[in-house]
């Protein structure tokens, strides 16, 4: 899980106790001087090092199973930052309150821990190999799916490790360890007959020792009730560094003879989600496979499993055929209407490509429409043609036949506002955070390309499934010139005023920063499960409300962190408003921090801490 302390200036990463003391000495040793470092014993935990009366005090902070953080015997906090803030106000059992952070000297980055690099590498490799992604698409997949992939890895990663021998007997383990040389620390891990129970077999002094690895109620692994770990591979990595009660530490693995090739570095686990299998499974709009290859409800479909994660033109052979204008013969327009607007209607269809047929949504311009409308649709098509991102509805092309038709990727889950209002009680709030994070990824991409959307709203966020959102409707969008930071509309139009930033309404000035404002309103719609913003107000009344410094209230189920972000998006002056790069980082940090908790655990948290 990405490190929630990584951004703190007083976080030093994986440094030793004596290094921490050195830094505190250099910092002056005054009472309440403190720093934070990673804890090696407790995965995901920290140590708070504090000086008081010219002495050092080190307090381990444990990451609890519900995703919160606490010093033994102390109150739980949602993150290490919040914990430090709490102890700065109240010593609550520490030697003294935290008074001054001992910040890292300029240029000194937090020291990465052994697990950080392994974990990041594994997530990256898993995504790269499972979905065969590269470059930007790989990066996007890592950003949006790290928590999900980590969960998959946590349960299956050990299966691909050379030291994992599957279900073999104690006698077989001994025979494998005694064959060849028998250096101290030679080991293997095997599964025992009882479900969820494993054994570690280790050579020391030419003798094989067996240790039982059990799982506690929360699913954490430990060797004979020693240090607890989320995953078996983390346990093994830790025991390579410290014996932690074993007769010797783990050194050399006995490669499993049944494994086809030896994997020297952490490799993606053997998982039934092999690329070909995953891509072919049919799915429901809730994002779960009906019978996910024997994985039950655990087998959530990730965005990368869907056929619209990558552009249909990511295949070079299809790319060769790519043209803005599509042949009518290759397009099947079905009767099913997905929706309608002033322009005409949106119908379901199929587009026949060279190698495959893809589901499409076809925006059909009403016949008898004026030239201006046709021009608008062509502008929208040309603009969309330049965009390629997993969180933006892609345009496949336009087709000029019985009507002018804009052919787009199909997002069959419908719009975000309708979905959320119809599924209020079924969609947990972290699912909303996940979807809004994806919207932020799409908007950050637009910002980087200097495109302004101008109509970001929950109605224009479409769902591929419950866990996969895409931004749509580029009818009002503009591509800015390289040196322009805003678009100045010549006249006002039929504008979605409730989504518009003050500078749009007052000065007709549109920029990525005004899209950030709209993102805040979209967040509000999402966290209020599809409610209409500024309900009782008329569009023009909203600007007076805003000028008075007022803002919409926090929706009932909305986490305070998300309301804080909305309020930042509603910073009156655009110069002071965060950009999408910042917004995406903020929502990502929050999303990762809550993704660590399961839904049950969140419920538990509400019970315990509310
Ligand atoms: O909210 P909806 O169900 O989703 O109704 C509107 C309607 O067409 C008019 O815009 C639907 N729609 C638009 N683009 C797409 C698309 N790419 N995939 C699926 N539905 C779409 C939209």
UniProtKB/TrEMBL annotation:
- Sorted alphabetically, which PROSITE patterns does this protein's record hold? PROTEIN_KINASE_ATP (PS00107), PROTEIN_KINASE_DOM (PS50011), PROTEIN_KINASE_TYR (PS00109), SH2 (PS50001)
**The keyword 4Fe-4S is annotated on this UniProt entry:** no
SUPFAM superfamilies with a match to the protein in the record: Protein kinase-like (PK-like), SH2 domain
| UniProt keyword annotations, A-Z | ATP-binding, Cell membrane, Cytoplasm, Immunity, Kinase, Membrane, Nucleotide-binding, Repeat, SH2 domain, Transferase, Tyrosine-protein kinase
* Active site (record annotation): 455 (proton acceptor)
Q: Binding of ATP: at which residues?
A: 338-346, 363
Q: Name one GO molecular function term.
A: non-membrane spanning protein tyrosine kinase activity
State its location(s). Answer: Cell membrane; Cytoplasm
Q: Which residues form the Protein kinase domain?
A: 332-591
What's a single GO CC term here?
A: cytoplasm
Q: Which reaction does it catalyse?
A: L-tyrosyl-[protein] + ATP = O-phospho-L-tyrosyl-[protein] + ADP + H(+)
Identify this protein by name. Answer: Tyrosine-protein kinase
Q: Which organism is it from?
A: Podarcis muralis (Wall lizard)
The major lineage groups are: Eukaryota, Metazoa, Chordata, Craniata, Vertebrata
| Gene symbol of the encoding locus | LOC114588403
